[in-house]
Every structure is written in structure tokens, then in C-alpha cells.
């Protein structure tokens, strides 16, 4: 027995309250006649007299649970409820189960009952207290004649649902009903007649799901459930019910159908539907909120399938990738990026690492990601109501080895088009999320956000994706989902078009340059706006893991109005000041209460007008608040923007940012304690000298004019910092180099064989490798000469004097 977890007097009070309520009802029936039962809804079960009068003593059910775990697993599950996160989860299950003991089934909405039933059954497994099992039995036998929850039925106290909510929630409710039967099957409270009532209830409910799945997509009110996340939830729920009904023709067919629809072909419009909803590198296309939404049912189905058939969904590369990508995308505060339909906090948008860690013991970072998602209310986050799965799947023995992913913290998921530039895996590290989506996706949860970025630093979400707008009224809902609400460039008031197809990606964006070095990480994104034909090249880089530079080039065949957007956080917790000329400061506080500010500097190649505005946001679920944003507007045919985004706390020195121009060339200078950095944009047709830099490149960035730490060149043959040559080439090259303790790393890209002379600081190069292969070179102190015939990653070893 496991009754030590509860307080006896509280149990007695709960049972007494329930008994008193039942007696009150009986007295009412005696005085006023039998209460009229609500009309059964489409899923109602006609409970037979034999079933309702059968006694527990005649039960002869299975020996115990089998679908997600077996009787042999119960001691370990009970042990997990004694301490740590397991105690947090169990306390919530127990609270809900005790409340369910007091409810009168005939007066409780079906929706509530099908949630209560899983709490009661799991509480029985943990405590071995048959009181819970008996109440679960009562619900199983009475749920069919309780007030029905269905869009075609109005039955108090149920609030009549819309088809969208019903189609989303019904498979979860039915799966919980099925698992409750599995969990109390060995309790001795069910007779054969009881089990037949339960079986018929599940068959009727399962037919509703199956019929909707084989219907044409969007083929009527019910068929909304056979597309996008609805389809995944319904198929998974149907599969769980099928495994509980194993041995029946329909149950076996449903379990097989669920697997085939996810990983094979059921004759529907799209085969391998799970692969349609997830990119090859594991990103769930609708956003992290809907990753959580779908996988809270998919994971239990995968476990049930594995136990029943040996087929291992967790070995599928796409399935493994979706859990991996969650860890790679995680923001420094443990929350997911709010791209597409993504919300903070993680309790609403992910946190499945502890559900699947046992499937991937060689990947401790899955548990690490979950540990980073700690929630002050729930302990470790678990989607509300799913604590049974958390207790069943959690492996506390794997927590002790939890560590972040090995290797560089900067990661790029090129299939999905997501890039994460990081300074590290810590909570205060710099983090930039760059979007270059280009995969087909037929989902209303998609957003037109190709080329957008977001920024987290110093423990605060500073440049944000405001959410999906569902909590905001009227047109504000759609504004939050539009291109206007993202950190990108609008052309004539229009952003990229939204993807809405299984086979075609509208206005696809792609990374065509990815560089990861110690001192300068760099992503280059290209896209063509379908509405105007304008080409954009966006360069996003982190310099010294300290600040961010965004360089945008826009090219068109005729003049356009360009509108560069930058969205900040909640106005209730922050303030924006700006001078109308491109300088601004967003000031807020991080989760630790420290003051944090984002210093912003924006320039353009044409006259610029900068204004602030406010708009709705809802990246925290259930709220609609106001946020501030900047609009940097200009009009031209071909032009460009330079933006410097510098996060800092009050304890850190503020940068001094200035500007220098020479004809069409312009430079932004960033003066910091001990060094000066420069960002140059120029036509590239002749050398220019600006702010201590001489170059003929179209773009150049130098961190440390006097003692270079890193630098970038695009389409240049020369770069000097002061009098020090950093690059001399006989043809234009793209080059990034970073200096770090005797090692120089970077990337070079050339159109054909090119001779290079590179500045190497005070040391002498002793080895050069291109994509890991040795390259002949000639070195003197401070300089190395080499010839390259293709692009690739450079690595040079330097002996210091």
C-alpha cells in the first residue's frame, strides 16, 4: 500500500463530502421523482441494467495494466512519487483524484468525467486504494448517460463546444478513458458485464474518430480533425484506443491504421503524414506549441505500439530529430522560440525530454533541455493533466548525467531553415534565432515570417516574435500572425507570403552561408518577395558573443517603400526611447530582476525615417498585451540597412556608436572599452577608407581595429585595419576569420582558384587546413600566403612569439 502519501483525515473529509452530496441527490429524487437523464449525444453509451447492477465481486478482468507499462513497473512508478518532480506530479494527480471522488456522475459533464477517470485509475495504481478504482468504474458505467459534451448537443452543465475544440479534445478524452480501463483492469472491481459496457463506449467513440479520418480533408464539420495537428492527435488517440481494445477486429485495425497513417500509406492525400508535419532535421512545422500539442498523444501511442508489436517509432530519424531539435532550439531561459505558433513558457510548448530520455540514454542533453525548462509552479513542466505519463516514463537515473549538447552551441537546422547563433548554453548567454523557412506546410498555424529573427540576451527576451494572436480581439489577432509583427523588412507594406501547401513553399528563404567561429558567427539568408519580385539578402551575425549585426541588401527593378521592423517586449515591463533618426534603447528587466537594455542603431543607404509604434502580443498563453516596435522606413530601388543591436546590463559599459560616410559608402563604429569595431557597407567598385578600415568589399566587419579579433569580408580583394593587411587576394572572395588562443578559424568562399594573403596577428602559422585537409602555405610572422581552388572551412594553427 502507498497510503503514506496522503493524510487520513483529508481522505475521510473527501469521502464524507461525496457521500453527503449523493444522499442529498437521493433525497431530491425521492421527494420530486426521478431526475430526467439528459438525452444521449452521438457518442453516448446505453448502459444496460445488468451492467449497472453488476457487483465488483463477480469481476474477472486481466491481471493488471499492459498498454503503457506492466504490473512489474508499478513499484518503480510508486517510488518516483516519493520525492523530486515525481512528488510534484503525484501531488497534482492525487488532488484531482480526490476532487473527482466527490462528483456525482449523472450531474457532471462528460468532458470532465473523461479527464477525471484517468486521475482516479492512476491514483489506484499508486496507492492500491480500491476506492479510486470503484469511482473510476462508476464513471465508466455512467459516462454514457451523463450530460454529453458534443457540438450537436446542448446539455447543462456542459458548455456546448465548437467543432474545433471537440475535434481537438475528443481523441485525448477517449484515450484517457481507454487507459483508465487498462489501469483498473486488475483491481477486481469490474465484472464481465462492466467490461462490455466499457468496450462498447470505446468502440462508439473510436468509430467517430476513424470515420473522420477516412473522410475527405475539410470534408465537413467533423473532418476538421483529419488535417495538421488535429490529424496527428486523432490518429494517435485512435491508436491508443486500438491497443486497449486489442483482440477485437476494430481495435486491431485502428492500431494498425494509426501506424500506417503516420509512417506508411492509408490511401489518404499525403502518405507518411508525420514526416509531412516535421522537417527532415526534426522541426515540427507548426511551431513548438503544436509540437507539444501533438506529441502529448503521439508519445504514449509510440510506447503502446512498441510494447505491442516491437515497432519502434523512436528509432525513426524524424521522430528522434524532433526531440533533438527541441534541445537545439531552446532559448537561454529554457523556453522555446516563439516562431510560428510558439508560446512561452515551456510548460505550454514542450518539455518532453523526461518522457523520452529512456529511449535515448546516449543523449543526455534531452534531459538537460527539460531541466532548463523548470517552472516555478509545476516544478519541471508537464502539460496540464498529463502527469500520469510523466510518472510512467520519467527516468530519474538519467538526470544525473544530464549535460548540454556537445560541440558548438551555435546550431543550424538547414532543412527547416532555423539557425541559432549562441554565445553558450547558459541562461544569460547571447542567442539569436534566424528564420530561413522553405519547407511546404499546409497549416493555419504557419506564419509569414521567412527572414525574421529574434534575440535573447542577459536573461531577457529583447527582440521578440509576439506570438499567434489568438488571445487578442478582432483584427489584432490576425495582425500578430502577419508579417507586420515580425522582425523583417516589408516591401510596399507586404512581407513574405505565407506557406499554405503540402507541396510548395511560397517565398522560400534559404541559408546560403553558415559560419561558426569563436569570435564571429554568421548566417546569410536569401529570399525573393513574391508580391514585388524584390530580392533580399540578410546577414545576421554575432560579434564576440557580445552583440548582433544585421546587414540587409534589397534589390529591385523599380523603387519601393521599405519598412524595417524591430519588435520589443511587453510595455508593462519595459520602455522604449528613440530619437527618430535610428538610435533607440529598449529598457526592461530580466527574470532575475536586473535592469537590461538593448541599444539599437539603424542606418540605411537612403534617407531614413524611424518611428515607434505599439501592437498586440500574446507569447505568454492566455494574455493579450501591448508591445513596442520600431519602423525604419526608406524609399529606393536598391538599398540596404545596417543594424547594430547591443544588449547590456547596468553593470556593463555602454557602447559609443557613431557613423562615417564617404560617398555611397557608410560605416558604423562601435567603441568599447579597449577596442574599436567597425561595420562597413560600400558599393564595392573601388577601395574606400572609413573609420580606420580600407577595403573594396561590399561588406566588411572588423572587431578590434588595433588588434583584430575577428573580421568578415564579402566580395572583397583587400581589407586593412589601420595599416595592417588582413586580406589581399587576386580575386574577390568571401571570408570570415576569428582569432582564438593560437587557433584561427573561419570560412573562405571563392568562385575559382584564388591566391590569398591573410593577416594572422603577432604569431606565425604552422598549419593550414581547408575542410580538414592540409593546404600548402608560406608563412612569416603576422602573415600567411596560400592558394585555394574551392570554398570551405579554414583552420590555422599559430605559434605565438
TrEMBL record:
Its main location: periplasm. It is found in: Periplasm. The keyword Methyltransferase does not apply. Residues 408-592 form the Heparinase II/III-like C-terminal domain. GO terms for molecular function: lyase activity. GO terms for cellular component: periplasmic space. Keywords: Lyase, Periplasm, Signal. Residues 1-27 form the signal peptide. The keyword Kinase does not apply. PANTHER family: HEPARIN-SULFATE LYASE. This is Heparinase II/III-like C-terminal domain-containing protein. It comes from Jiangella mangrovi.
